[in-house]
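Quick start: read one record
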Amino acid sequence: MDEFPEQQEYEEVGQIRSQEVIVNEESEGTRLDAYLAKAFTDISRTRIKQLILAGEVAIDGATIKEPKLRVKPEMAISLTLPPPEDPEPKAENIPLEIVHEDAQLIVINKPTGMVVHPAPGAQDGTLVNALIYHCGDSLAGIGGVNAPALSIGWIKIPPALWSLQKPTGPTNISHPSLPTMGAQAH
C-alpha cells in the first residue's frame, strides 16, 4: 500500500501551497491523476485533473499537462495549489427581464441556461451576480431578515403525466405586491 508521508503538510508561499511526493515501486503504472488523488486526500481527483491541465503539476521539475500519464518509481511529483478564489460573488451588469419589482420583492424571468449562483466553473455571469449589481445592498440571502418571499415559475407538465393527476384548473399564486398570477398545466 502506498504511504505518503507529510501528505497534509504543504510548503506555503504567500497563499500558494505546494508539495512534492516521490513515487514508490508499488505505484508504478498508476495514472498521474489517480496517484495524486491518493497522495493528496484533501483534494478531489477532478480538482487534481484541473490542476494538471492548468500546468500546476511538475515531474522532476518539468511541467506536465497529461492526467493519464503513467507514473514510474522515483519520479518527484510536485503539486501547486494556487490561492483560493474569493468566494464572495461579484456584481455584474447583466441585463435582467424584470417582471415585477418593489421594495420587498423582485420577480425575474430567468433566461434558459443561465446559471443561478456562482460555483466552481461558473464564478461569473450568474443570476446572483446580476442581482447583486441590480439590487445592491437591498438584496438579502435566503434565511436573512429580508429573505426573498417568493419564487415563481411556469410549470409545464408533459402529456404523458396528465393521466397521473387530476387537473383542477388554475392555481393562484399571490403576494401583496403582485397581481394574481395563474399557473396552468399545458
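Strands lie at 11-13, 16-22, 57-59, 62-64, 76-81, 98-101, 106-108, 171-173, 181-183.
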